[in-house]
TrEMBL record:
Domain of life: Eukaryota
Any one Gene Ontology molecular-function term assigned to this protein's record: sulfur dioxygenase activity
Protein name: persulfide dioxygenase
One Pfam short name: Lactamase_B
Annotated localization: Mitochondrion
Annotated catalysed reactions: S-sulfanylglutathione + O2 + H2O = sulfite + glutathione + 2 H(+)
The enzyme's E.C. designation: 1.13.11.18
Amino acid sequence: MILVDSLRERGTRSPAASNNMSSALYSPWRPLVIFYGICCYSATAFMSSTPFCTRGVPKSIRSRSFGSSRLASTMTVTAADITTAGKLGEAETSALSDKYKSVLYLATDKGADKGIEPNGFASLRGLTTRHLPVDVKDGLSLQLATDALQALDELPAPALVVCSSGGRASAVQCLRKATEEGWTKDQTLAYALEMKLPFVKNPSLKDWVLATVAAREYKDELPLLFRPLYEETSWTYTFLLGCPVTKEAILIDPVDLTVERDLQVIKEMGLTLVAALNTHCHADHVTGSGLLAQKVPGCKSMIAKISGAKASIHLEPGNRVRFGRRYVEARATPGHTNGCMTFVTDDMKMAFTGDALLIRGCGRTDFQQGSPETMFESIWTQIFSLPHETSVYPGHDYRGRLMSTIGEEKRFNSRLSGKSKEEFIEIMNNLKLAYPKKIDVALPANLVDGVLAS
């Protein structure tokens, strides 16, 4: 039974193949599955001569030669009608009309963020132009991606896409290519890695591209089955997610006190629980994951390996936990504890942040392996990298709020919005919070999956 796959495993099979294999392993046709596995092994040996990141990518991409433009060393020709570029000088700008009919300009022209010297967008002359400012830190949304693709459709070809470093330009080019080819997230990322596109090194641009592709990839899928559940004594949210096709489900952050209630909900919805996930080793309640693993045949408890806690399966960053045709991906978001994980749905529309990012706040960093420096980096590179529209579901809220969005938290979270790392550290180091009431009971129990020896 394939519940969890890794980045390395995804390099040798497409998402569709992963889902098909998972379904096969749940079927009674095990002899055929074994035969299929032997065939796959042989195929893998044959494919060993194929570069890792080209597997699952159309052959038209693998064989195409992408040369470099003579116009500037920062330019790379990436398609027949689109070229991307970083910052251009005056001489290069004056020669643009000899090669291009239009320019899509992505730099904001704020401060040093100029794609053309010395005057930014105002330097462009004699071409059809469009200025679409892309602010990587605060302005990435699915709507912005749609606007960029629409601009490329409307501008006459050949077109030049310009920003200050090539990152944003390469992201838009990749989006255009993925849309034309109908690629999945995995195929899009494989292409970007093979072509060494600059945006891949920026977490926000990378998530922006992949989330935009995912929106199309999953647009025809039935929506996830979703139920938020609540445990009132610890203000803890438990989240139930189910595949609408196979009815397999997972629970995120179950509580021991509400295990029976959760099982009743699962039964009433006609679901089969395959996994109980912990975002971290909790200090304010005892997890229900171990009890669920005992009570439900086939259910596996899961937690980050680095947490040191017991579980059926230990997770690493990048692991995908599959339930039917859907999955959540684990992202390492330490800072509250060293083993904190955020789970992001396959369509990148939902992020379950545990005690890392809360609504208008964040988890405390003054006990266990807490670190405000690490927390700041985790939130900005693994959570705030998601598009503005992504919904945020925290592990707790003390004011009755269920969810927020990335865009809201970037704008209104007083601990993080507009704050430098140094300012954030100062805030977190001076919260003067009380000692957690249940930590002396909860933490030892959670280190053994919530099930103490009788």
